[in-house]
Design brief:
about 20% strand; 8-stranded mixed β-sheet
């Protein structure tokens, strides 16, 4: 039998302490998510409702199939910046008429849905996900265009949004735009470049320049309706493919468009799979509050994979990296999970061979992060840690099967790269509230700076101020600690969301289903598997 046995003592003090720390982090996370859900706040929400309009998430709820899940992505975008948490845009994956779609919705309660630099980054990430996984894109549009005070950061890179729409269409990935209000200036190209456009009577306003701009540019007097109203675009310009009488009718028509797309998944959905043998609630007590304390990732694997069934690969070799085969919601996966934190040469070679095997078999890979990076020191340098670490990173970089990453604990240094961090294009990357990621740990980084400064002073024959050094180290540690926390990193879109550990299996299952909309093919390279 390959069912994992659990040694987790759920009644012990260590488990209770870990669980309490995780619940505290989840409470803080819930508070930040609430800011995104609040949009522009009560005043602007009330004003929007007073116009008889639905909120962004209400539109999504009506669009997706009843009782189907919606996986919201990057909800903390712009956290820690001068812009509203959520970046005035909702993005995620939902099922519409049985078809998994990438859905975006402007939040008009935040500065009229205007796009700021983080809105742009979030929208581009959504398009990237749609393209990689061949998901139809549905844009629920209501935006005043670029947030003009920040136009210098939006205008030039912002053209990629329209480029993406045309490339999606050229790749046979359907695009649908539903216009609920303003879609002006550059925003007019969203319905203009989408395969299908739905506009709403007396609500949709689509023009390159509104009446004031037209007056300034040409001297022509005009009004919203004749210049860019839904009826004009439906009867005269032909920009509107479908004319809706109100918001619910527009959503109904969008659903009918999707129903007629004839869009098929590359892979059939698997049969219902057996759940894990252990309670997902126990995931709260596995990761220690102090990430210097190791934990066994098999305890996590046992609570997310089907039947807690895991066939381990090289279990006695390179033991600080656990590798093996499982299925998750019926989809096969290869799993790489850090055990003791540090990656040595053996772990690196083991990972490279395992990644090659997954590519030979067209099996997606799941990376579970808890690593302080590759081992340093004279013995390890002489043993080839650089070339062995490079071997692992090379395998990750050139692997062609889909990758999923979950940051559970530490994800420091080049270990973050070897475990498929953001720069290595995982299809999806999520973090637990316990995760931390940086070039190295705060104490190590501050210590390195201190050693360098002390050596510099000695080389110049100058005395070293130990009191100032202690203050600087404390300041640097505090800065690196704050910049390595998951909400800070999620705010910069270095992940696709910070999730409750108990939701890990569900989130990964939704992602695997989306991934299998596109073909899953590994890299072959003309060679067999190299034994490492």
């Amino acid at each position: 039998m390959t069912v994992l046995a659990s040694a987790l003592d759920t009644g012990g003090p260590e488990y209770r302490e870990n669980r309490a720390a995780m619940l505290d982090k989840l409470a803080a996370l819930e508070g930040e998510h609430a800011k995104a859900l609040a949009g522009g706040g009560e005043k602007y929400t009330a004003r929007h409702r007073g116009r008889g309009k639905l909120l962004a998430r209400e539109r999504i709820e009506l669009l997706v199939d009843p009782d189907s899940p919606f996986l919201e992505l990057s909800p903390l975008a712009a956290w820690g910046s001068d812009y509203q948490v959520g970046a005035s845009l909702v993005t995620g994956i939902g099922v519409v008429e049985g078809v998994e779609c990438l859905i975006t919705a402007n939040d008009p309660t935040v500065r009229g849905g205007a796009s700021n630099p983080w809105t742009l980054k979030k929208a581009l990430r959504a398009n990237e996900i749609a393209f990689a996984n061949r998901l139809p894109v549905i844009s629920l549009v209501e935006s005043g265009g670029a947030d003009l005070p920040s136009q210098k950061e939006i205008f030039i890179p912002g053209g990629a949004l329209f480029r993406d729409l045309t490339r999606l269409s050229a790749a046979g990935i359907p695009t649908v735009a539903v216009v609920f209000g303003n879609s002006t200036a550059g925003g007019a190209y969203v319905p203009g470049m989408s395969d299908h456009a739905v506009m709403i009577k007396e609500r949709s306003k689509v023009f390159l320049g509104g009446p004031p701009l037209v007056k300034m540019a040409t001297g022509e007097e005009s009004d919203d309706e004749s210049l860019g109203g839904a009826e004009m675009h439906a009867r005269t310009s032909g920009l509107a493919d479908h004319y809706a009488v109100d918001e619910t009718d527009a959503i109904r028509q969008a659903r009918r468009i999707v129903a007629r797309l004839n869009h098929r998944k590359a892979h059939a959905d698997p049969q219902l799979a057996e759940g894990p043998k252990y309670d997902e609630d126990e995931l709260l007590g596995i990761v220690p509050g102090d990430l210097k304390t190791p934990f066994d990732p098999r305890e996590v694997i046992a609570r997310i994979v089907d039947g807690s069934d895991f066939d381990e690969f090289k279990p006695l070799y390179g033991t600080s990296l656990t590798t093996g085969w499982a299925s998750l919601h019926g989809y096969p996966v290869g799993i790489l999970a850090n055990a003791q934190g540090v990656l040595f040469s053996a772990e690196s070679q083991k990972a490279a061979q395992f990644i090659q095997l997954a590519n030979q078999r067209d099996i997606p890979l799941l990376f579970l992060h808890n690593t302080t990076g590759y081992m340093v020191g004279k013995e390890y340098e002489q043993g080839g840690i650089i070339k062995h670490g490079a071997m692992m990173i090379n395998a990750v970089a050139n692997s062609r099967v889909p990758h999923l990453s979950v940051l559970m604990g530490a994800s420091y240094g080049a270990g973050h790269y070897g475990m498929c961090g953001r720069a290595y294009d995982p299809r999806f990357l999520f973090a637990w509230p316990s995760a931390k990621s940086a070039v190295m740990g705060p104490q190590q980084l501050a210590g390195v700076l201190s050693i360098v400064a002390r050596a510099s002073a000695a080389a110049k024959g100058q005395p070293y101020d130990d009191e100032a050094d202690a203050g600087l180290r404390a300041l640097v540690e505090a800065q690196i600690e704050s910049e390595s926390l998951p909400m800070f990193l999620s705010g910069r879109l270095y992940d696709d969301g910070v999730i409750d550990p108990r939701d890990t299996r569900t989130v990964l299952g939704l992602c695997l289903s989306a991934i299998h909309t596109a073909p899953v093919e590994g890299a072959r390279g003309g060679f067999g598997v190299f034994r490492m």
